[in-house]
Description:
four-stranded parallel sheet; disordered C terminus; globular; 2 domains
Amino acid sequence: MRVALMVTCVNDAMFPGTGQAVVRLLRRLGVDVDFPQAQTCCGQPMVNTGYLDEAVPAVRSFVRAFEGYDAVVTPSGSCAGSARHQHQLVAARSGDAGLAAAVAETSPRTHELSEFLVDVLGVTDVGAYFPHSVTYHPTCHSLRMLGVGDRPRQLLEKVRGLQLLDLPKAEECCGFGGTFALKNSDTSVAMGTDKARHVRETGAEVLVAGDNSCLMHIGGMLDRGRAGVRVMHLAEILASTEDDSPGGRGSRAATVTRPGGPS
């Protein structure tokens, strides 16, 4: 199986460790992973703001970059949701039959990481080790647009050493929402404050989610409140092994990390 990593703009620019974790994890599971250098933005920011026509070049670049792969895997429910659902809207509006046909090929083959592991590979135990207490935030697009359900929890429950704690009102949005956080900042901050409070209530050492954009938002709230709770992407936890722990041969997970690197 030839698999392409869609790393996403946010991860490429700010959290490269997440993409690296996806590659380590998938290769450990025997998957042949490529990183197409031609990939750019999936076009979601334009679509979410109502600029569907302006999203056409981004969608065209996407299908060109990822054509020919058996699957496209991304550590983002948000960007996977854009590729699976929004690209069809953009292509239909463009009136370009060729683009619509290309989107019809790439969209169904695009998977959020937990979907790919559980549904495509049929794996829930990825051989991970992470001796910390963790609580999980289901991000809006992964929960509502993609319907990933409990797949991330299935994976976390099989991580050795990990204590998974329930997050109160987990299904409530964190308030980030991309441009929403800029255009409706007061509401965004209020929602993020509520989410951070619920995270603190769990007593967990680490908050995990499948989108770094949400973790960045909630993590900022936790930092400002000096909560002492770290945030990590799901991929980074699943990529961790005993070799990464203190005393192991590696050092990637020797300290709990923020998305993309140690803190």
